[in-house]
Amino acid sequence: MKYIGSICLMLFCLSVVAQNDLPPGQVDVVKSFEARLAEANRINVRPELPPLDSTVRRLNYNVISKDVSVEYLAPRIRPLAFRTEEPPEIYDGYARLGVGYPNAFYGELSYNITQNEDFDFGIELMRYTANNKKKVENQRYSNNSLGLDGTYYFEEGFAVNGKIGYQNDGVYYYGYNDINEELDTLLYSFTDDEVRQRFGIFDFGLNIFNGERTQGDFDYRAGVDIYLMDDNYAARENGMLLTLEGTKWFAEKHPLNIVLKTDFSTFRDTMKQTLNNFYLEPSYTYHGDAFQVKIGANITSFEDNFSLFPNLEASANIVQGALTAFVGANGSLTKNNFRNLIEYNPFLRSRMKIRNSKWSEYYGGVKGTIAGITYQGQIGYKAIDDLALFQLNDPLESIPRFDVQYDTATIVTIKGTIIMPLFEGLEVTGSVSQNFFSLEREEKPWHLPSFTVNAGARYTTPERKFSLKADFFLENGVPYRNTAGEVDNLNALFDLSIMGEYYITKNIGAWVQLNNLAGNNRQRWFRYPTLGLNAMVGVSARF
Fold this sequence. Notes:
It contains three helices and 27 strands. It has helices at 2-18, 176-183, 338-344, and strands at residues 93-101, 104-113, 119-131, 140-153, 158-172, 196-210, 218-231, 236-250, 254-268, 272-287, 291-302, 305-310, 312-319, 323-336, 355-370, 373-392, 402-423, 426-439, 451-460, 466-475, 479-481, 487-489, 493-503, 508-515, 523-525, 528-529, 534-542. A hairpin with a 5-residue loop joins strand 2 (104-113) and strand 3.
């Protein structure tokens, strides 16, 4: 502060010196103005927001639309091509002709019309003959068949199917040659007319069913099937099957099904026998996400005797797609009529006793698909009344023919199947079955196999120009009574067959088939050995 005072004093002295030139007089010194604020009280003011306006205001805007035309060049649309595989060509007709050893002929023709929306029609012809008389007298057979099948679909939503068929099979009782070989003699010899048997069967069927899906998800079918059968020994059998079936679908996957069948059979030789069966089969199947359950029954009637059989099955996915477990129970009446018995054993005597087999079965197993391999394994228990067995009445009869015997039995069955697609075009299949019989009266299940193995491989090129298949069959020797009346077993079956087909052009091909490469002359039926090695070659056509 002292420096500020010194400076002010110096400035004052200078100003006095500088005013020596002013005129003399009185000088007033005026003091500078100093502003001072009076004392005041402080007022504290707190700012506040104004209250919100919560009223809802509706604003209506009237906008006048106006179309503005814009000119632009049309875009160039280019289709995007996807590489797809061409579907295999479908042929309506197929024919095959061939000849072979021993003295064999094969002819087959089939033609189907399926491209028309209003109807389907098909025709099939087949003839197969073989004659090994140069090695075994009268060892020969022939199979002939003709079939017509057609379906017409009406605009009203129902369809009518009709079919007509005729089958004529020739069998020769050449078993006397085995007697000559066993006795080391030429005691028996016959002309072909003396040992010829012929079975002629005429079939007719008519069915009416819904050709389209109905509004109520209800499927229906009504049908009649008739056959007339006769042979060279004046045996005749007529049969008629009437069927009514209805299925109501719930949620498109749960069917409630009812089947009503009446099956008539009349067999005549020296006497008249009838098998008239009635079946009522209601069932309901529920399909869940991981399980399926079927609940039903089979009510049968024969000669006013009613029987109730279960019709049950349940399955559950243990591992989705790979492992499914299933159990079930069912049963029914199976006819041992003339037609069914002859189809199983063509060397039967025409005079026979026909009966129903009454059976119940309980089973369980697993199935699934792993790495593309489909498999199924099953074990079952079956109780059966009047199981059909087959025995020669006299093993030394000049013309050996079989009689039918019936027995009560239980059968434990273990079986399995497998399907393996190894790569594109090649598929391998196999099945094995083992039966364990327990009979009430008979010592053995005469002429019924216990162990069976079937295996096969199929290969087809992608363009379907070449195909090759191989089949292997193995079966145990069936039990029988030999000439001394003792229990014995016939030789086992060991059969390997191969067939190949190559199309030289799009429609014409050539084929060759080799059967029983092991030359196994197995007797499936006592006294009747099968053909040994046999072969056929021929041409085929598709159109």
